[in-house]
Every structure is written in structure tokens, then in C-alpha cells.
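Q: My labmate handed me this sequence with no annotations at all. I'd like to see what the chain might look like in three dimensions before we decide whether it's worth expressing. Could you predict it?
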Amino acid sequence: MRDRELRPYAELLAGWDGVLSVESRAGALYGVWLRELLDGFYRPHVPARLLDFTATRGGVPVMLAALEKPDAAWFGDKPTGGRDRLLRTTFQSAVGKLKELLPGDDKEWSWGRLHTTTFRHPLAALGPAYAKAFDLGPVPRPGDAHTPNAGTYGATFEQTSGATYRHVFDLADWDKGMATSAPGQSGQPGSPHYDDLLPLWQKGEYFPLAFSRARVKEVTRHRLKLAPVGR
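A: Here is what I predict for the chain of 231 residues:
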């Protein structure tokens, strides 16, 4: 792939607003290029068994500083040329890999197609039928390890960590509290509340969080009573 073939993708990133939303087309390219860049930057200097550990959150600022001011320790006798080769080769590799990950029209690329999360039930390990019955997702996710609403991901870009619960309280009126959680208010498959919070969580939206007994009673839709066997 020649540089002229890379130009449209370079322009895609150059015009990006930096928002890593699920709809972001440039965000998908950024995510893959960042991985390729971290690997290419650290691999000559770090044992293979430590590469994943090094190329984490702390590895990014070190790499960015070195790219901004290239020196021989990182890039060899001709550091500027070495830096430029790294950028060019990893960018070319990233474009090729993204085409494999999201085949078809590259106008349909988006970060949310690549970066998803699935809520897996323990019973899913028993087989595909159980996974289909109990698992929820995949759902597209925004962000990465370096953004607000962080969504760290692994080798397949599936989200591996991130907040599933947040709340905001008004200490003057606890019943004005708001929260977001996932995937639902009930752990009972088949219940309408098994996944009722997932759409809100996916969009970063909050629901009212009742606090006082009176308010809880007012909004209660279902009550489950557990009693010892034989009573």
C-alpha cells in the first residue's frame, strides 16, 4: 500500500474531533492504530512477555513524549527518520487490519462496531443454548482506557473493564438521586427487569433512584417475598 492510498485515512484522522463515540468512523481507525503503534514502539525495547503490561495506560504518555521529541534511545541513530518510519508502517498496518476486522465499505466503519461488551451469565459456560438464553449483548460501547466513561478493552477490542454503576445524590433531598447501572434490576431471566437498565447504561443516561421508604413504595412495581421451606 503506497502513501497515496493511505491519504484518505490520514485525512479521516486529521479531521476527527477526538470524540470516541460509538458512531465515530475515525475512532475505529484510531483504536487499531494506537494498538499497532504501541506494539511497534515498545517491541524492540521490551521482552515479549512484558509487552502487554508495558503498552497500557502508562505506556501511552511515554510513547507520545518520545514521538514528539525523537531521540536515539528509542529510534536509533537517525531518530527523526526512525520515528517517521514507525508512524508510517504502523498506520499502514492499522488500515489493513481494520479492513479485516470490519470488512465491506469503509464508510461503514465505526468504533461501536469494533468496541462492544457482552454481559455473560455463568450458565453460558454450559453451551450455546444457555448463552443465547442468559447472555445480554453485545452492545456497542464508547470510549477507551484514556477517556471519561472509560472502557478498557482486550485483544479483540471487547470491553474488559469500566463502570457498570454510578450515582449522583442531592444531599438536601435524597429522593432526587440519579443512577445508572447494568444490565437490569432483576437477576431473573424472563423478567422484564432482567435487562431494563441496559439501554440507559449504553447511552450514558440515568434513572431516578428512590431513597425514602415512602418514595420506594410509591414506585415499586413488583415485590418478591422469600420464605423458608415449610412455612
